[in-house]
Amino acid sequence: MFIRHRLNPCMKGAEIGFSTCYYATVGNTKHADFDSTFGAMEMKYSRFLILITGLAYLNSCSTASADEPTQHAVRSAVAKSLPYIAERGQWWMDKKKCVSCHRGAFTIWAHAAAAEAGIDVDQGQLTAWVDWSFEAMLKKNDKDVIVTTQNLNGVAQMLFATRTLALTETQTLQRNQLLPLLQAGQQGDGSWKPAGQLPSQKRPLPETTYITTAWNRWMGGAAGLSDAVSTKALTFLKSDRDVVSTESLVVQLVEDWDTAQTQLALHSILNEQNDDGGWGWIRERESDAMATGQVLYALSMRSREGEATKAIELARMYLLTTQTSDGSWEVKGTKKNKQDKIQETATYWGTCWAVIGLLESEKVR
Description:
It is built from 14 helices and 3 strands. The protein is mainly α. Strands 1-2-3 form a 3-stranded antiparallel sheet. Strand 1 and strand 2 (15-26) form a beta hairpin.
């Protein structure tokens, strides 16, 4: 038997009316509902209440797995999100003409991950996005400088996003030109400078530099980053620092460069999970899809069983119950001057991370 908690929002905002439903599933059959309606209160609920409700119902049902319906729900949520990701990704390419650190590669990565999971994806459109992105990244400005050298975050992301795709010969040649740019852009101390909107995010710039370096090292490593560049980056990353964002814990878990530090990051992540199953972009703040998707991705990669199992399930349920009608997940801005309102860029970025995290979590099951 599997006890599941479902949260059904009735309106948007920090204060909402919602119906919360506890039910038990045996096989594919929903056996009982326990509904309680609450109005005008913050979206918080107690894991203890979920546990008590489940234990109270244990005597009435036999044991069975809920993997199948949960997998269906995840795949349905991903499929629902893809038209939104495709439309807004294409809009960015057409209007902004920019392969940004929060859009271009994530459009491709989300679709590539969905395709890898067997979810229907427009392969012609995916190929066209890769063509456009590589061409845009390798253009030169009026100073004869390749433009993407100003956005090495995007370079690392594109190398990683395209790693599972069957690239054309031309695309492969273009992709092979990106890694040397990433390596050449490393700073003397082993770091990479954050680009685009990243320096203006709502956390200290040194922390953003730390996160940028961690992602660039890890994503670039999947494309053949040299040992010398990787080691130099690792030396920078191992220096002690205080962090305020959940993403800092995520990169420590993903990189897994030190067992003790990885375990500390895992312990912090598990302790800081909110009662609704999610995590906030800033540690111990209200949950959002971007941070939750990132954590779900990292936990699913590094903690395929044991103590993270419950956290993974709660995170999946948080995402499944907060997706909006157009397939997106609304996220407040990550920039200091936009942190209090839902922002289109943060919503897009968060939606892609939610999809990536959900798909990675399916590999655990």
